[in-house]
Fold these 2 entries.
Entry 1:
Amino acid sequence: MNSRLISIIRKEFIQLFRDKRMLALILVIPLVQLFLLGYAAVNDVRNVPLAVFDQSHSVEGRELLAAFQAADYFKLTYAVDSNDEMLSLLETGAVKAGMVIPPDYAIRLQEGRAQVSFILDGSDPTVASTALAAAQLIGQSKSTEMMQQKISRMGSTVKIQPPVEVLTTVLYNPDMISAYFMIPGVIGMILFAITAILTATSVVRERERGTIEQLIVTPIRPIELVIGKITPYVLLSLFDAVEVIAVGHFWFGVPIRGSLLLIGLACSVFLFSGLGIGLFASTIANTQQEAMLTVWMTLLPAIFLGGFFFPIENMPQILQAISYAIPLRYFLRIIRVLLLKGVGIESIQGDMLALVIFGVVIMSAAALRFRKRLD
Amino acid sequence: MADLIAALHLHKAFGSLQAVKDVSLSIPAGQIYGLVGADGAGKTTTIRLLCGALKGDSGETRIAGYEINRQTEEARAHIGYLSQRFSLYEDLTVLENIRFFAEVRGMQASEWRPRCMEILEFVGLAAFKDRLAGMLSGGMKQKLGLASALVTRPKVLLLDEPTTGVDPVTRQDFWQLIIRLVASPEETGEVAVLISTPYMDEAARCHRVGFMRKGALIAEGTPGQLRARLNGRVMELRGSPLPLVKQVVSGQPGVEDVRAFGDRLHLRLKEAYSPQIAASLKKIIPAGGGTFVDARPVPPTLEDVFMALAHEENQE
């Protein structure tokens, strides 16, 4: 390796380790994001607060209520005495769902045509749709159960079966834990954000502080400057990736089913996209703030359109088309299938190719713009 | 011996602003060349063109024989450059800075340590080698800049206002360093120095001086040659009250410029001093209500030359 390159890398490392606050940020931010997204950004709906207006005051009414509480989906928070009271609780958000058991519930149940009404706060669609499905499911199983009891009482031993039963099997993430979906995403986001932001700011810092002027007048070649400056950040980003995967695995229990080698390869290939974007941003920006903002402008669409939170398949056609230009999209797919499904290279080669192409294109564009001159 | 710095017909425009117009320079080894001019005259741009930090619109620059835009890296291996703004790493120590610049200019690991210490001794920073550059005083920063420019023994030293904002004692030190560098080629090798400065007393220390105005090099020569342009045309006048006297003589034909100089006035005359001029002033001043004390010719300073050249500009 050439000695100029080594000097630049050493210099960058000294500066990096001297800036303790920055270093701490680089190492701690991934963990903060991991814990935030691992715990807070969960779509799993549990313990939806429920208000009940039980007009029947019957044993049967209480049984139904018990069935609702038995599952973790609902938590009985209020027992109310009027519809108005229930509506005002829904309005204030104190409860997300309300159930009204009519006065004649017990009698109608005997007749086999009881009705209860279920009111949902639809302002949070995620909660509402899950709660709705849960309510229907609980209701259904309760009626099956009661029908069975009725038949038993009539002296029959026939077990009733619904004519069609759908047997569901959820592969890869059977308990459907959101963290398994989120944490691989965090790896992608961290790799992208850290490399892009650090690369951009470290190059722009030389310009902002005037040190670029001294560098220009040395025999350093532009390519040596670029490689020398980004090497420490590449290593740091990979370290961050390891950190996130390790904590994700040992703390959150995210499985690692694919080969570590492939995961490492995917991370390394993906890094070039972040580096390229950072480098490109550094050729546009004059100050570190500008560089940060430029990177942010690519980061936000990447997170929203790359499938970090929301499935790309549900987006309008136009946004889906845009998402093809977002490297995070490919990496998220790769890392999720590698971690959760444990597939081999053949299932990810298309996405890998896309990442390589993106990396080459953005790096070349940045290299073309990157000049070792003041003007 | 060929010139270490040879620039021919340099031009550089920023948009519609012609920052450098047809500047040619030739500086041989052992020479200190001073580039002077008002702010915005094009000194910094010229230096940046010479070291290739900017690409000129036309013209050719050779540094130690290498063309700066075609043989950039070879040329730069011979350049020690100190920019106007402190441009070393404030978060690196003195030694780390010097080491970095020594290594990226191709110094081997075995050479850099003794050489770095030698150069730090030379500029008087050896005791501060482990201090962060950001914690140095302004003068020490400039010395560190000089040290890292000198560490690889470049043949060409380009210094852009190295002493601006530096205290007088450090300025003296700084100049002594540069003079020692040029004066002892057997010790330091042949060196050519280009230094820009706003201070005329510093320009007077240079072997040759070039005046820049509006991007062009309008006068060039040894300090003596430049001063000779005004030989006999500078007169010192004493009288009181000074503001009144100044007002009276300012309007006189034959007087080009009047400047207060402490308790006396310096007059620049359109033609050489003659006793007749003194005699006429002796009459005019009392007539205006002031007192004439004394008038005599004095040798012109570079500052006078500078003001005269600036004056021509206003005439245009």
Entry 2:
Amino acid sequence: MVDKRNMKANFINDSKGEIIFGYIVNILMGICILGALYPLIYVISASLSSGISVDRGQVFLWPVEFTLGAYEYLFSDNAFWISFANSVFYMLAGTVYCMFVSVTVAYVMSRKTFIFNKSINFFILFTMWLSAGTIPRYLNYINLGMSDSRIAMIIGFGVSAFNIILIRNYFDSLPKELIEAATMDGATEAQILRKIYIPLSAPILATVSLFYALASWNSWFWYSLLIKSESKQPLQIVLRRLLLYSAENIDDTSNEIINIVAGAHNDTTIKYAIMVLSLIPVLIVYPYVQKHFTKGITLGGVKS
Amino acid sequence: MKRALSLLLILALALGLIGCSPDEEAKNDDSANVESPVESQVESNIVYDGTFSKIVKEPTEISVFAKMDNDFVVKTDSTFGKFYEEVTGVKLVGTANPNVDDITGLNIHATEGFPSDIIISAHEVDAMVQFASEGAFVDLNEYMDMMPNTKNFFENHPLGKQIYEASVTADGKLFLIAAAERFKPTHVPLIRKDWLDKVGMDVPQTTDELEKVLMAFKDNNLGAGGITVPFVAKHWVLKQNTPTLLGARTESRATGRVIINDDGTEFYHGWSTDEFRHALTEMSRWYDIGIFSKELFTEDKPRDLYFPSDRGGFTVWSASTIGFNKQPNMPEGFELVPMLPTSYDGVRLDQRATHFMRKGRMGISVNSENKELAAVVLDSFLTEEFILQNAYGIIGEQLEHVDTVDGLKIYQDTKEWNDTIKAEYNNNHKTARHDNGFLNIGLSFDVIYDEARYIKYGEEYGKTPIDEIESKYLKAYETGEVKFVPAVNVSFTSDEQDEINNIKTNLEFYQDEIFSEAITNPYTNIDDSWWNEYIKKSNEVGMERLVEIYNTALARNK
């Protein structure tokens, strides 16, 4: 229980300068929080406003001409649900696959008695320093038949050297005596990994899972190059296309008058509605891993 | 021992990678000596007679990379694709990536070696010509006997000869067919009639009058909430649409910033003339005195921002801007009226009219395994029935013939299709059509001997605001009241095209940067030393050399 009397006593004992400093810090933090929160509030408000009011810049804080038109349009659009489901699939399947690969590779890298330990460590680190570049990578993916394939998008992008190093470092920090005891009891490598390393590594595993999940959810570049079918596109591609298409086409020679229906959504509000909906999975996942996050980052970064 | 084992592992991996790569030489040798079974099958399968009907005996498919306007691509199994397959027996398999922009999509396809049979790009003309010069496409002259529509078009259409000259290379090869579209105005000046009435002035006829009108809008603070933007613009409006109001020709639709002089004898760079310097200085002065918005280089949609909010007075933009007059919730009395470009030194000038050869290129990939089939399919793209229906809809389903006016057949959207557009596409006809595969690839609809016209559901032919603007301008072009920037066909050698592409990218990047700097800084900065430095740097980047290449090509083509 917080000792409020001691807190008050401490506060009274603070010098005037420290009190003022405290207020200044609080004000600055408040400004930072507002700066971070306001765009989110604006996006939510704009998604709930009419298209005309958003285009006219009338939305500042609260929705203007409140309408759920953009959300109704999206929820009635199969393409949106398909892309949303694709994003969820890529995120979940991708995270599971990435974690499987990362944990097993990190385990091998942490076992100093393994004969090729140094070589594997070198190869993994090497990929962090040097990359073939976009075009060779693209051609490699095409030649491997990874164009327009869901499974290929998961398998082809499974390994992050940085995350493997994080997990490896955490494994290195675990007490060696546990492994020795398990080995003496006749445990196999798989059992050591499954029953000792993984249970003790919850913080780093949660952290790295979050990294993979967020990276998968937010990524669009390789999806835009390799996925052509609309049925396989993730949400970020749909959002990007909406952003690109809604930009005014300076070369428009069609002279086609586009009529706007009053009070309805338009491309702008649909864009904002997609942004809001794309935040939801992140908001759901994050609280569960938050408690592990800070611990995982710092412990993973420190070599024992 | 460990080191040796590591080296052994690396060697094994390397050998494995090398071993996995395909044997290109063997493949090439085989293809040179043995006739492809696909080709021989295709040869006997073709029954094309030059009309939009059955092309093949047995159903087959052909791959088409066709990209226009970013995410509009030929899609396999689109509504139009299925119609085409039903009529001709050929399934069009779309291979373009809709998720990347046009040039990225084309370049990605090029890195794969143009594996598709037919390649079409609506906007990346320079890139397509460059690839053609590097041998990416077949010479269509070899297949002309199988392409009666193409031959007929080149020989008999009023624009056929010019399109042929625009398509053929300096040494007579026909790698690409230039797409074309009807000559018409696109970006026109539009001014607030209600604001003119408030300040008691008429539609300005000269640029001096225009400046007085715009300053009157500003000085009388006609904009709502104390914000008045007399001239609503974006950066490209200043670069492309505004110089002509100030007496400068700076670009042509056909050849970009390198333009031909009046008598067609010599090319020059539109951004190197005294007229351009004067126009730049005036635009900078207009920026200083508040005729433009200070945020014009960063605003996203200034038309949507300033007209509905009753803050904008004038613009030079696509004719569709007149549509604001009919939009809901516009300010009371809001009325934009079109006007001819204001005259400067007695001349009204327009450089935004479309040029027939602007719209793109199409060809057959040299790596196609179905070149003859691709040739007849390409030829079918040039039939009247294909062009009309590919652009607007299938007759009987999306389109119906409603009238004939002076020999012109008038086609209109059906009610059912119109209802679908409203319900599923937010009333956006273009998106609705493109999403269903009606892509307007190849030739633009109205180029066909002017025998047909398309109008939207409920419209009366020739009576929309756009029709009125177009006929006003076409009349003005015809009588010479408005001069438009001419274009001339030139074709380049492969080396020349290489050099043009290299210079143009760097030059435009530099000039666009300098342009922004000149506009946003005080106009008095544009003095002799500034100008001389700009010309010197532009020439270092390659401006003079670029013009030289064009003039060499011009001399050769004569």
